[in-house]
């Protein structure tokens, strides 16, 4: 089997081109920064070009720090229009970008069996609000999740 290894930024630039043409793209997720809602090494996300106003809580693919792409939640919009992003699995780390640096909106989490979970259903939004409020104690919850449930998926990253 022929394989081609492509730089992550190069691959996502191609994804951005497909999105501009109106296509939806399913992208595998690496890393654990979106735990517990998106499991890196297991889940994929279905990305679309944003067709609506973005809101706090939306999971977006964005170019941050003029150096890399991340899939994180829109955490805050500053008065000067600066967008603050933070992964669900992060305790304190935040990234910053401008609205024009947002490439895509993640609409669905796609599991290995092909099932899809809409990220903005009432239940998912409620779950994220609860998770956001648990930020002071997330460190311990995430430690347990990483050591138990998600151990087998971390090997793939």
Task: Give a concise summary.
25% of the residues lie in helices and 28% in strands. By secondary structure, it is α+β, with helices and mostly antiparallel strands. Strand 4 and strand 5 (83-86) form a beta hairpin.
Query: What gross morphology would you assign?
Result: globular
Mean pLDDT: 89
Strand content: 25-35%
Determine the oligomeric state from the structure: single chain
Structural class: alpha+beta
Query: What are the low-pLDDT stretches, counting only 5+ consecutive residues below 50?
Result: none
Report the sheet with the most strands, covering strand number, pairing sense and barrel closure. 8 strands, antiparallel
Discrete helix count? 4
How would you describe this protein?
It is a single chain. By secondary structure, this protein is an alpha+beta fold. Helices cover 25% and strands 28% of the residues. It has helices at 8-20, 122-133, 138-147, 151-154; strands spanning 25-28, 44-48, 59-64, 68-77, 83-86, 95-97, 102-110, 116-118. Strands 1, 2, 3, 4, 5, 6, 7 and 8 form an 8-stranded antiparallel β-sheet that branches. The mean pLDDT is 89.
């Amino acid at each position: 089997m022929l394989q081609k290894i492509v730089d992550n930024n190069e691959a996502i630039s191609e994804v951005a081109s497909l999105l501009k043409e109106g296509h939806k793209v399913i992208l595998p997720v690496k890393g654990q920064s979106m735990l517990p809602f998106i499991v890196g090494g297991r889940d994929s996300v279905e990305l679309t070009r944003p067709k609506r106003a973005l809101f706090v809580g939306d999971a977006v693919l964005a170019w941050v720090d003029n150096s890399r792409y991340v899939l994180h939640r829109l955490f805050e919009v500053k008065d000067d229009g600066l967008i603050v992003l933070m992964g669900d699995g992060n305790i304190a780390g935040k990234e910053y970008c401008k609205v024009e640096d947002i490439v895509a909106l993640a609409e669905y989490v796609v599991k290995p069996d092909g099932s899809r979970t809409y990220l903005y259903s009432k239940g998912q939004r409620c779950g994220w609000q609860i998770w956001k409020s648990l930020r002071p104690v997330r460190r311990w919850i995430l430690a347990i999740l990483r050591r138990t449930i998600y151990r087998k998926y971390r090997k793939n990253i």
